[in-house]
Amino acid sequence: MPNGNPAKIAVVGTGWRSEFYLRLAQLLPDEFELVGIVLRDPAKVSAIQEKWNVPTFLSIKELLAAVKPDFVIVAVPREVNPKIVSELVAADIKVLCETPPAADLDGLRKLWQKVGSSQLVQVAEQYLLLPGHAARLSAIKTGVIGTPTSVQVSSTHDYHAVSIMRGTLGAGFGTATINASQFVAPLVDPLIRDAWSPDQSEKLAKTVLATIDFGDGLSGLYDFTDNQWHNQLRHRRIVIRGSKGEIVDNDLISLRSPTAIVESKFLRYQLGHDLNLDGHDTEHISLNGEVIYQNPFVGLRLMDEEIAIATLMRKTAAWALNSGPEPYSLAEASQDFLISMALEKSLQMGTSVQTSVESWGK
Predict the structure, then answer these.
(1) What is the mean pLDDT of residues 160-165?
(2) Architecture of domain 7-124 in CATH?
(3) What's residue 192's pLDDT?
(4) φ, ψ for residue 24 (rounded to 5)?
(5) Strand ranges across the sheet with 237-242
(6) What average pLDDT does the structure give for the chain?
(7) Cβ–Cβ under 8 Å, residues 203 and 183
(8) Which of 176, 248, 287, 335 is the most exposed place for a label (fewest CB within 10 A)?
């Protein structure tokens, strides 16, 4: 860290998502010092203290009376998030809150009105920090496919998919036009979040398809099937098209000279395979013989999601300590959520929906 000391962080919430931050902070003690966990249920205090060996508090007020964190991670349901974020901002505390920032458009607008000008709020949107996406984005920034013009995402849902599209295209805060449809078909769902499912019968699953016109010639194609995050009977796909080529998953085709079109692959170098005894880990991703992405946490044996979250935490610490840019601002996250809500509205109404330019985009 800039001053040689770990960033002091606290976590609000004790659910499944908050545990990612707690685990990663304890794996990186030189970078993060856990100074508190805030929870609402007094009956859980002993169990939480025993599990994490971190001071616990029953309110933000109690936490801040004891210590001032460099930033606070808020991992609570979307309905509760605005109140907690607003309380922290009122106390001049920097915040990293989980997605989405609010429960609906009205809540999003009210949250921005309260805290938007403070520049104290970042949002935990980590998808473009996943190794595969980070490598593709790094390649795009070199100009290998020219000007990016469209992104097709079939892997994750709602605002996460929108964040991949907007982040890859560099789309801003202008109006967007969304057309969405849904289709229902039988599908076996063999996996739940962390285990095989005993029920492997066919059930009806919904697939949502949508086009998103971001303006200025930029577009997105959204394709998501129920539980596609975990259902490995459906591939995760990404197509990024540009003026001089395109990327399809780990394949690249590009115009390298006026008379040469070249095909390449993004190759992941994975430790721990065959006779490599360095432990199972991602080391790097290369393209055309050049390393284009390096895992910042080699040796910790992290899965891709953990690598992305740990990277986000590191970036947030740098921002909180005034030594780095914003990792993912409330304005960016609000725009992602705005478009995802318009997608849902288009689905319900059966018509195209156009977003407005909101206060966070002015």
Answers:
(1) 98
(2) 3-Layer(aba) Sandwich (3.40)
(3) 77
(4) -65, -40
(5) 290-294, 281-287, 260-271, 251-257, 245-248, 237-242, 148-154, 218-225, 202-215, 177-188, 353-354
(6) 96
(7) no
(8) 248
Region of 308 (left: φ > 0; alpha: ψ -120 to 50; beta: rest) is alpha
Which residue, among 54, 299, 10, has the nearest Cα to 307 in the 3D structure? 299
- Where does the pLDDT of residue 129 fall: very low under 50, low under 70, confident under 90, or very high at 90 and above? very high
Residue 245: what residue type? G
Closest CA to 83 of 63, 65, 59, 66: 59
Domain boundaries, the chain: 7-124, 127-302
Do residues 71 and 102 make contact, with C-beta atoms less than 8 angstroms apart? no
% helix, strand, coil for the chain, step of 5: 35, 30, 35
DSSP secondary structure of 189-253: --B-SSSB-S---EEEEEEEEEEEEEETTEEEEEEEETTTTT-TTS--EEEEEETTEEEETTEEE
CATH number 3.90.380 given to 127-302 = no
Give 60: exposed, middle or buried? Use CB within 10 Å, 0-12, 13-18, 19+.
buried
Question: What angle, 0 to 180 degrees and rounded to 10, lies between the N-to-C axes of helices 105-115 and 330-349?
Answer: 160
The yes-or-no verdict on residue 2 having pLDDT over 60 is no
Say what the pLDDT of residue 70 is. 98
10-27: pLDDT as tens digits: 999 999 999 999 999 999
Residue 197 has pLDDT above 90, yes or no: no
Nearest CA among 76, 79, 80 for reference residue 16: 76
Task: Give this prediction's pTM.
Answer: 0.95
DSSP 288: T
